[in-house]
Design brief:
By secondary structure, the protein is an alpha/beta fold. It has a single domain, classed as Aldolase class I (TIM Barrel, Alpha-Beta Barrel), CATH 3.20.20.70. Helix content is 36%, strand content 18%. An 8-stranded parallel β-barrel has the order 1-2-3-4-5-6-7-8, surrounded by 5 helices. β4, α4 and β5 form a beta-alpha-beta unit. α1 runs parallel beside α2. The longest helix has 18 residues.
Length: 214
């Protein structure tokens, strides 16, 4: 194992539960505190930031990595392999235009968790797993306030992807009210942004989503 990933957790293909994704935020300290409150309920945390510059993204990624280490939750970086490597994150999540899985594996090492957005297509999921992805994500499963124009995935995709033998992530519009439907469809992880962070009580929302897997 290369030195830069020597502190990463072992790859966990059986991971299930709540996959929290960070909301957009103008205040770094506020973001960390919002995440801290709900992180005890998370199986994974993804840092997603489409607005900040590179310096601020690095600062926030370091802060979130320290927080994730405190709670023993892997930090996944959205779209940015170089940033994931810089902060020794648990892994990276790649969309269809975010670079090759094989290149990410080469940069981050065997222990990294590499996930792939597969949208509404089983062929993308099969290709991603063939290339070494550790999980595949389908969505939007429900209408999403974060991505209102996102492609819609059918619940049948999760059954089709069962043979791939990697965790299947449901994303898009998931809330405490519909999380059971996502799990019933076959989701091993539910990726949530607004369903937790914009809820009247984020801690209660996170607890409900996590408990749905019990």
């Amino acid at each position: 194992m290369s030195p830069h990933n020597s502190r990463l957790p072992p790859r966990d293909h059986a991971r299930k539960g709540l996959y929290l994704i960070t909301p957009e935020a103008s205040d770094s300290a506020g973001l960390v505190e919002r995440v801290r409150a709900v992180l005890p309920f998370a199986a994974l945390l993804q840092y997603r930031d489409k607005q900040s510059d590179a310096g601020l993204r690095l600062e926030r990624a370091h802060a979130l990595k320290s927080l994730c280490d405190e709670f023993d939750v892997p930090l996944i970086i959205n779209d940015d392999v170089a940033l994931a490597k810089s902060v020794v994150a648990g892994g990276v999540h790649l969309g269809e235009d975010d670079g090759a899985i094989a290149d990410a594996r080469m940069q981050l090492g065997d222990a990294a968790i590499i996930g792939a957005s597969c949208y509404d297509r089983i062929d993308l999921a099969r290709a991603a797993v063939a290339q070494g992805a550790d999980y595949v994500a389908f969505g939007a499963l429900f209408p999403s306030p974060t991505k209102p124009l996102a492609r819609r995935a059918t619940s049948g995709l999760f059954a089709q992807a069962a043979a791939l033998n990697v965790p299947r992530v449901a994303i898009g519009g998931i809330t405490p009210d519909n999380v059971h439907a996502a799990i019933a469809a076959g989701a091993d992880l539910v990726a949530v942004i607004s369903g937790v962070f914009d809820a009247p009580d984020p801690v209660a929302a996170a607890r409900i989503c996590a408990a749905a897997f019990d």
